[in-house]
Description:
Layout: H1 12-44, H2 48-53
Amino acid sequence: MDNLNLNKHISGQFNAELEYIRTQVMTMGGLVEQQLSDAITAMHNQDSELAKARYRW
């Protein structure tokens, strides 16, 4: 995505919103990656407390 040329769009506001969405998606991806890692660790170590405690809303 770093090579994405956002200058081709006419609207600067569109570019800003597109970058915001990109940032949000990347952030969500990072959270999913961490949650998956924690889940695998909890299963591997049979750590029920880690499995229960992480990411409760």
